[in-house]
């Protein structure tokens, strides 16, 4: 299943998914963003490592 990375927006099949610490909404990060520690932004605007 393809998902959009929350950091770079790319569609990826290999991702990590976890709930945002503020709202609990699911955040998707591709393996690339995990590797380079790209920041992500939750729908509520929280920016995390
Ligand atoms: Zn990404």
What does this structure look like?
This protein is mostly beta strands and 49 residues long. The chain has one domain (3-48). Helix content is 10%, strand content 37%. It has one helix at residues 31-35, and strands spanning 3-4, 11-12, 15-19, 26-30, 40-41, 47-48. The strands form three sheets. A two-stranded antiparallel sheet has the order 1-2. A two-stranded antiparallel ribbon has the order 3-4. A hairpin with a 6-residue loop joins strand 3 and strand 4. The longest helix is centred in the C-terminal third of the chain and has 5 residues, at 31-35. The chain is globular. The N and C termini lie far apart (24 Å). Zinc ion (ZN) binds at residues 5, 7-8, 10, 29-30, 32-33, 38.
Summarize the structure.
Helices cover 10% and strands 37% of the residues. It has 49 residues and is mainly beta.
């Amino acid at each position: 299943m393809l998902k959009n990375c929350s950091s770079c927006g790319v569609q990826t099949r290999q991702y990590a998914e976890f709930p945002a610490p503020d709202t609990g909404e699911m955040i998707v990060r591709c393996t690339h963003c995990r590797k380079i520690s790209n920041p992500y932004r939750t729908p509520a605007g929280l920016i995390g490592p």
